[in-house]
Each structure stands twice: as structure tokens, then as C-alpha cells.
Amino acid sequence: MCIRDRDTIIREQEESGIKIARIKATHCVDMLASAEEREEIAQGRDIYWLTPGWMKYRHNVYQGWDKGLANENFPKHSGGAIMLDAIGYYDRVMESEPEKILEFSDWMGIPIEPYRVTLDRFRRLLVAEVKS
For residues 7-41, b (16+ Cβ closer than 10 Å) or e, as one string? Predict the structure, then answer.
């Protein structure tokens, strides 16, 4: 079985003549808050970082994970989980279906807290890539 990572997919596309641009960020969370910003938000705590999409699509993101695997991975983040939320997702879910957050937190074995961010960093990264 060959696993194609994003670098492989980009290389394949470029080899077929398609120009590819890639944002200068290490991962999706880094597109919302830089390492320095996350360090400031964490205040020295060991945090598991989330985006709204990771929670909304948790059954796809963590496909094949059971409670045992979750218990092996999440509790080592003693500071809990922080959802970087630029769209007000956490607040909407807490108002309409709080059990979803509670169930996800229970499954993870750590508390989840929201942290409001803007999409300014993401926008800057996109603009920088377009201009390069």
C-alpha cells in the first residue's frame, strides 16, 4: 500500500505541468496561530490543538480510533485541548448541542476550551503565497 502525503501529491501535480502553491505553515493549526502565538495562548501548558473542523468531522479525523487509542494519546496533553475558533463554532455548539462538546471531551479524556482567533494570519499567509 502506497501512502501519498501532500508533498507527493504536489510533486505529482507539478510533474504533470500544474503549478502548485503551498502556504508557508507547518500544519492547519499553524495557519490560524503561529508557534509563538500558540505558546502565549498555552501559557506553559501542554495543549492538544484543535480547529472547529477537527471536532465537527471527528468521526472522519479519528476514524478507526477507539476509546483505548484516544486514552493513549490525548491525556498526555495535561493542559487539555484548545480549539482555535475564528468562526464562533464552539459557542454555537455550546448553545444548541452542548452534549457534542461534552461527549468529545469525555472521549478525549481532557477538557476542551475555546480560544477566539481571527483569520488574519491565514489571510496573510495566502496573500504572501499569491505575491511570491
Answer: eeeeeeeeeeeeeeeeeeeeeebbbbbeeeebeee
- In contact, 100 and 54? CB cutoff 8 Å: no
Calculate helix-pair angle for 89-96, 98-108, nearest 10 degrees.
110
Q: How far apart are CA 113 and CA 98, in angstroms?
A: 13
Residue type, 64: G
Question: Is residue 91 scored above 70 in pLDDT?
Answer: yes
Reduced DSSP (H G I as helix, E B as strand, rest coil) percent helix, strand, coil of the chain, to 5:
55, 10, 35
Cα distances (angstroms) measured from residue 94 to each of 48, 71, 120: 20, 24, 25
Collapsing DSSP to helix, strand or coil, 43 comes out as coil
> What's this model's pTM, rounded to 2 decimal places?
0.84
Name 82's bridge partners: 49, 113
- Single-letter amino acid code for the residue at 124: R
